[in-house]
Structure formats: structure tokens, C-alpha cells
Amino acid sequence: MEHSRFYYYVSAILFISGLFFPDMVGSIGINYGQIANNLPTPDNVIPLVKSIGATKVKLYDADPRVLKAFANTGVEFIVGLGNEYLSKMRDPDKAQVWVKANVQAYLPATKITCITIGNEILSFNDSSLTDNLLPAMQGIHTALVNLGLDKQVSVTTAHSLSVLEVSYPPSAGSFRKDLVGCITPILNFHAKTNSPFLINAYPFFAFKSNPKQVSLDFVLFQPNQGVVDPKSNFHYDNMLFAQIDAVYSALASLGYSKLPVHISETGWPSKRG
Ligand SMILES: *[C@@H]1O[C@H](CO)[C@@H](O)[C@H](O)[C@H]1NC(C)=O
């Protein structure tokens, strides 16, 4: 959801691998948004990324300046295919040209491991965008297969939490009914190609839209009573984990309980806009 508002967010990608928080985050990544003024040059971003211990970076595009600057740094990259290019990627020749120019050209010096096809596509309720999503994912994946890169580069897309109809309690998590028809084949694509389900999850927005009901401590990982899911009996002491479990429940309800879920964006405001 990159817009200028994003300037004020510390945005992170968390790669989750366990149950409790210190073990839970296998590694930390950051979203490198570029819709802002006064941005440091890519060369100057490298020490910033390293200083916070991030080993992964997600771009919203495949900016050549950034991908060149990070060559031989060991930092892993998720690159993005912009929403505006989706319809073209149905065409296998165009998909191959895109992968060659934006991914293959930087490998192996820059460690690109994943491509996100569009960002929060299903939340626009735009049927032409929605209809192009899976064909574009398939087109890019086929190009990677043809170039012998599919084992090192996976293909996915990042969803907004608004793809869920129910997110509380977490055990009742389910997808919007009108999206089930298009999400199910996408989940099948993930299962077949071994790629993760990406979710942009913002407890902050839940707080902002409902500040009287939602406790700030629950949103900000501060000590609080937490909530108990009446069905699973799981106790949640922060909203982020509750949101992610709602996603797992939604996936399970469609028969995809084994798909890995990665948090592709989260964050809190760091400054008043
Ligand atoms: C998309 O449709 C859903 C379900 O009808 C609705 O809740 C949501 O507000 C819509 N979003 C936009 C951006 O129009």
C-alpha cells in the first residue's frame, strides 16, 4: 500500500517461523518505499538497512539503482511488479522480457528471491485487475521456469487484510465471500509452486478505525490483559498475532492450512503527518 502517507511509517517485513515472539521472527526485513522526498541514495541506504539488522528488503518495483547498489551485500530482495503491468504479463513473451530485465540481469550478485505480482490487487474491487492477477503470476512463473530460475525465485502477491470478511476471533477468520472464487486458484498456485501467502497486516489501522474498542497496548505489544479466542482457547496479547492467525484460519477454511504466511508489511506511525 505504498502511498505518500507511508513516509510516516516504520514498515517491516517479519518472517515468521515459530510460536513465541523472539523465536517467531526468523529474520527481519524492511519495505523500501520510494514515494517520498529527500530520499537517501541507494548507496546510503545500505548502511541504514544493516544498522537495524535487516537482512531482507522488499521493493515495490525493481528499481535498477537499488538492485545495482545492493550487489554483493548479501541482502535478499523481494522485487515487485507494479499493478499497472499486470495485464501485459499474460503474454509469455512479455513476461520473459520483464524477468530477464528486472530479475535475471541482477542475479546472482543481488540476491532476488521473490517477485510480488501487484500489491493489494484484490482490495481495489476492480474486476479487470483481479482477473489479470493469477494469469500474471503464472506468466512470470513460467518465464522463471524457462530461464531455469524458478527454484531460486518464487512468485507471489501481497494482500491487504481487507481480503478477510471475519478476522475476530482469529479461529473464525475467513475470506470475503465474493473473493473466494478468485483466491482459491491463487492458493492452489502457491501450493503447487511452493510460494508463501503474503499479508500486509496493520494493527494500527484497526486501532485508528476503532480507538474506543481497541486497546492501544494490545496494538503496540505493551503489557495488557489480552484476549482469549473462545473456540481455540488461545490467548493473544497483541493484535498482530491475532490478525495472522485469522489469516491461517481463512486459509484452513479453504483447505490450505499448510501454506506459509509471511507478513509483507506492518508498521506504526513514527511521526504525525
Ligand atoms: C470492496 O468491496 C468490499 C465488499 O463488498 C467492500 O467492503 C469494500 O469497501 C470495497 N472496497 C473498495 C475500495 O471499494
UniProtKB/TrEMBL annotation:
Which InterPro entries does the entry link to? GH, Glyco_hydro_17, Glyco_hydro_17_plant
Presence of keyword Cell cycle: no
Please name the SUPFAM superfamilies in this protein's record. Answer: (Trans)glycosidases
Top-tier EC class: hydrolase
EC nos? 3.2.1.39
Q: Name one GO biological process term.
A: carbohydrate metabolic process
Can the keyword Ribosomal protein be found in this entry's annotation? Answer: no
Q: Superkingdom, according to UniProt?
A: Eukaryota
Q: Which residues form a coiled coil?
A: none
Protein keywords: Glycosidase, Hydrolase, Membrane, Transmembrane, Transmembrane helix
Question: Catalytic activity, per the record?
Answer: Hydrolysis of (1->3)-beta-D-glucosidic linkages in (1->3)-beta-D-glucans
Q: Which Pfam families match?
A: Glyco_hydro_17 (PF00332)
Which sequence ranges are marked TM in the entry? 6-25
Molecular-function GO terms, alphabetical: glucan endo-1,3-beta-D-glucosidase activity
| Family to which the UniProt record says this protein belongs | Belongs to the glycosyl hydrolase 17 family.
- Return the PANTHER family for the record: GLUCAN ENDO-1,3-BETA-GLUCOSIDASE BG1-RELATED-RELATED
Kindly provide the name given to this protein in its UniProt entry. Answer: glucan endo-1,3-beta-D-glucosidase
